[in-house]
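Appendix B, example 12.
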Amino acid sequence: MYKKANKNEEKCNPKRDVNAYAAEEFFISTKFLGVKKLSPKELTFNTAAPILYSMIILRKATIDDIELLIQLRLDYLTEDKGEMSAEVKNAITQQLKGYFNKAIANKTFIGIFAEIEGNVVATAYLSIFEKPANPNFITGITGTLLNVFTYPDYRRKGIATKIINRIINEAKDIGVSHIDLAATADGKFLYEKLGFKVSSYTAMGLKLK
């Protein structure tokens, strides 16, 4: 759990949360214009923690949050890939400083935090790109959802769902027409619930450096 003051706050409605399984690995993508908005009746409420939900505040990252964004990224990577060497961690930190400064300034990045009493308990990022358009992303503007991360004590309580819904709405407002992501089998249920579909293509990559 990471401590940070509240800005650009949005209180969550506990009755609209769905049990979440936030993670990244299994490739899923969706035609963003077709993402389904879930009604309150389609969402389930985890009654095990009603007080927790009433305390959740969502806020959008600003240029003042770079230190926090870096720490949350490092926490996510440590859990996902294991403890990193000091050299690797320093290299990642330096790259992230430059990236967040530039991407927040030119509005090609969206970061959303979930906070409880000023403590950050979960987050997710969207990196935004412009590509040659095709029928799946007619505006040519796409986003990659990443760093979907909730601290262990707050998992499976619907917090990731709230964050991702906020990111989807923010993305729509700036003309993003398609979002892709990579998810674990545990995360697949959450993303499908939000309207994401498994891609007909196989995700591949080539490491250059």
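Residues 31 and 136 are 5 Å apart (CA to CA). The helical segments are 50-55, 66-81, 86-105, 159-173, 185-193.
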